């Protein structure tokens, strides 16, 4: 039996776009999470229902492939499927399609349920998984990881302080905000002239309100790839590798 | 002849809300600007058309009154009207209504056209104003200003650096982001337990990419009012007075 799919229409609006008029990467993630939340709600899996089992969904890894970021006013379709799962991990896919059904972006995510009591990974409660009709699977697809950097790599860094509005209902920085810190560290002119095409990100540790983080990055000259790490003190919060192409 | 009105439906989604699940003030402004942009587009007044006259719309002042901020999942209606104008200023009104048509929020704004050549106020081109069928008026409504503070007032301050994603198509910080700086400076627990009910804000000078700003604020003990100023160096960028009530 194939897992349930869920789709919804969306129109890209001005505050979802950067100053080139294209959807931002952070907003792309917001929209992918939105369509999965709307699937959840349609299946009766509201945030309150999930929380009533003492857990919240937390993403640990994404692999995102972008063909073309849509522009303000574009009518798009968001689509998702909770494809498969095992005791601790759930594998979810996401699609962004244009008005003709062409793929603009595709993402895979690995999600876990975090216990609110211990703030550690807990076995996924059956009640929050069954309604998707996903495939139980011992071995889930393995997403490509961010690059391992040579030990001598020197990264530039830019400081950020976690804001109240960065925090979500799980009491930590929402995963989309990491992209704002990672990308904002790069030069504005580079961001204007390039779009991300392939993003591998791993979330290692949660970051809470008021913390100071650094957005570390390195981008070799002439290379259309950037390496990123977010640190909260000495603790690695997330790392990512992003490939770019000229717009 | 009364000015054209424009309405559109909207459903509040998770990334528009804070960790209490309510629409943020910055998002309320984004939605009000969105409905006015959609009115513009419906009247053929696209950003490109306005820019072809060498100008962009810039807000100088808002007065916002909030009865109740909607929650995630709420179906609301956005409504706007470009009520009246004179040579240099346009007066616009905004409404946020619940599913039964009850008013959740109301705002008034004073807008000007900024010349891209001089970055100063320019006379409003007739071509960008006529389609609204607004009332020409020598004297526009005067919005209440932020409070004048006693000279000896000491304000706390919190630093922010302007991010690439804060910049809009006018090449400066979008007006909604000022609310993120102003509100984030207040304690998280206060923000969780209170909602803004009356906001008076004046935008004095634009802020551009990469600038360091300070969000200055004072909130007298036990007073449900906060005073705010955003400075870019010695230059006042915006000031505001916000009244609050317990949620």
Automatic annotation (TrEMBL), chains A, B:
InterPro entries, alphabetized: Acyl-ACP_TE_C, Acyl-ACP_thioesterase_NHD, FATA/B, HotDog_dom_sf
Domain Acyl-ACP thioesterase N-terminal hotdog residues, every copy: 5-132
Tree of life domain: Bacteria
UniProt cross-references to Pfam families, sorted A to Z: Acyl-ACP_TE, Acyl-ACP_TE_C
Acyl-ACP thioesterase-like C-terminal domain span: 156-245
Keywords carried by this UniProt record: Fatty acid biosynthesis, Fatty acid metabolism, Hydrolase, Lipid biosynthesis, Lipid metabolism, Transit peptide
UniProt record similarity statement: Belongs to the acyl-ACP thioesterase family.
Name by which UniProt lists this protein: Acyl-[acyl-carrier-protein] thioesterase
Natural source organism: Levilactobacillus lanxiensis
Phylogenetic classification of the source organism: Bacteria, Bacillati, Bacillota, Bacilli, Lactobacillales
């Amino acid at each position: 039996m194939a897992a349930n799919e869920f789709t919804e229409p969306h129109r890209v609006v001005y505050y979802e776009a950067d100053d080139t008029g294209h959807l931002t990467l952070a907003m792309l993630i917001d929209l992918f999470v939105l369509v999965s939340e709307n699937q959840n709600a349609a299946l009766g899996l509201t945030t309150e229902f999930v929380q009533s089992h003492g857990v919240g969904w937390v993403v640990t890894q994404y692999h995102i492939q972008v063909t073309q970021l849509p522009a303000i006013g574009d009518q798009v379709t968001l689509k998702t499927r909770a494809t498969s799962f095992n005791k601790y991990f759930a594998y979810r896919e996401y699609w962004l399609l244009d008005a003709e059904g062409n793929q603009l972006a595709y993402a895979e995510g690995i999600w876990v349920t975090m216990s609110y009591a211990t703030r550690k990974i807990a076995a996924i409660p059956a009640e929050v998984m069954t309604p998707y009709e996903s495939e139980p699977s011992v071995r889930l697809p393995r997403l490509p990881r961010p690059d391992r950097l040579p030990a001598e790599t020197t990264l530039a860094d830019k400081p950020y302080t976690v804001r109240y509005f960065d925090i979500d209902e799980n009491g930590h920085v929402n995963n989309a905000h990491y992209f704002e810190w990672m990308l904002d560290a790069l030069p504005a002119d580079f961001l204007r002239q390039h779009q991300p095409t392939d993003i591998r990100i791993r979330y290692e540790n949660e970051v809470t309100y008021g913390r100071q983080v650094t957005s570390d990055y390195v981008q070799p000259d002439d290379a259309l790839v950037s390496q990123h790490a977010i640190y909260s003190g000495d603790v690695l919060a997330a790392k990512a590798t992003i490939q770019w192409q000229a717009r």
